[in-house]
Amino acid sequence: LTASLTLDPAFTVSPVRRRTFGSFLEHLGRCVYTGIHDPAHPTADADGFRADVVDLTRELGVSTVRYPGGNFVSGYRWEDGIGPVDERPARLDLAWHSTEPNTVGVDEFMRWARTAGVEPMMAVNLGTRGVQEALDLLEYCNIESGTHFSDLRRANGTERPHNVRMWCLGNEMDGPWQTGHKTAHEYGRLAAETARAMRMVDPDLELVACGSSSSAMPTFGTWEATVLAEAYEQVDYVSAHAYYFEEDGDLASFLGSAIDMDRFIEDVVATADAVRAAKKLTKRIHISFDEWNVWYLHATASKPPTDTWPIAPVLLEDHYNVADAVVVGNLLISLLRHSDRVRSASLAQLVNVIAPIMTEPGGRIWKQTTFHPFALTSRYAVGDVLRVELTSPVAPTAKFGDTPLVDAVATRDAETGAVAVFAVNRSVTEPLDLEIDLRAFGAIELVECVTLANPDPHARATIDDDGSLVPIENPDTKREGDTLRITLPPVSWTMARLA
Ligand code: AHR
């Protein structure tokens, strides 16, 4: 079986957006406490942040980090998390049935973001709160001095403004599980008025309205249309969230998850553009895909026992296998090929909670299988996304019908001439040959070709293993004139670099 991929530097989708490689830190389970923050850890800094987590965050190549939620933000009082730590109140966190100690708040997060070299992306609470509290937080973060909240920030030890550019107007407000859940019309009005007021403080903010929590939501489509009918002029992005998992042993359909992501993105684009047409505007709304990942929604605990309100319980600690990493790599391929409209994305989440990075409290740190495709794509997807021509054999899947077995995208850095191809083989059983037509590039050589695969696609990396579940050099590559042929093992993710 053979797939073919034709590349030409003349045909591009858009520049690679660095914000495609964002992630997410929520006050949820052990993501913040005993995740990034663990004062008892030997590498902890003065704020209690683990340096080893910062190092892996950098190695992962994370660009932006969304904070502090997630469902958590819809009941959050940001003022609880500022000032002297020992005077901060503990609160009930209704979203995750936990106790929030508020040891980490906005100033600590901003210091962590600076140390980790990531851009902060803040979310405001539009569940239990509204316009005023969003303005207060914006004033605290972005105003230099001379007002109540900016001077409070300075009194709390941060002289210069945090200068946060990107703001999410609430989180998943379409979901009945959300504290302060709203109808599309109620939310659209609130988002528009919050955005309008925030822009009175700073017209250049980049603002994200909540789209749908998944393409399977009963309100998907009408939610976006209604919210944007209210808020189109005031916002820059609409969000999209999607989580995938292997159901009932149907690995073939699970491997096709990027098909759902492709359709989801294209449907949101169509809906936003329809609102634009009706309003006779030229401005286009882009997508902030600010939660995406593999998440075995029903397999790991997502709430502690109802008679307890623990601090930092073990929640959503999914343990990923090779197939999960292949799907993560494929979802990145989908995000990249839509870079003209998907201008920001966040892998949910960063540490311990459905995460590529895992920590032991006070102890070791380790990488899940999903770490590798993300880190390599973030490092080597540079320059422009190419508009590729791909033909692939297909096979039937229960969820998606006839499904192309190979999916791929490519990038090219016009400055260096470096080309990177990212590809997956979604066949459960068959190796496939991928023939890459390089004739448009002239002289170009293969630099490396690495593949992540395993005879057992359900094999998982563990804290104690031998480190073998990582991408390794693919020995089955052959150059014939202008064609590069790579054999892709079943259930695999591959990166080929040329220069
Ligand atoms: O990422 C975990 C949760 O998934 C987030 O809190 C919520 O926004 C989504 O439902």
TrEMBL record:
Q: What residues does the Alpha-L-arabinofuranosidase C-terminal domain cover?
A: 290-492
Task: Name the EC number(s).
Answer: 3.2.1.55
Show the segment(s) annotated as Disordered: 460-481
Q: Which residues form a coiled coil?
A: none
Q: Which Gene3D superfamilies does the annotation name?
A: Glycosidases, Golgi alpha-mannosidase II
Would the keyword Hydrolase turn up in this protein's UniProt record? Answer: yes
A GO BP entry: polysaccharide catabolic process
Reactions that this protein is recorded to catalyse: Hydrolysis of terminal non-reducing alpha-L-arabinofuranoside residues in alpha-L-arabinosides
Asked if the keyword Nucleotide-binding belongs to this entry, the reply reads no
What EC class does the entry list? hydrolase
Pfam families given in the database record: Alpha-L-AF_C, ASD1_dom
Superkingdom of origin: Bacteria
Name the InterPro entries on file.
Alpha-L-AF_C, ASD1_cat, GH, Glyco_hydro_b
Identify the keywords attached in UniProt to this record, alphabetized: Carbohydrate metabolism, Glycosidase, Hydrolase
For molecular function, the Gene Ontology terms on record are: alpha-L-arabinofuranosidase activity
Instruction: Spell out the family assignment given in the record's similarity comment.
Output: Belongs to the glycosyl hydrolase 51 family.
Subunit annotation: Homohexamer; trimer of dimers.
* Protein name, entry field: non-reducing end alpha-L-arabinofuranosidase
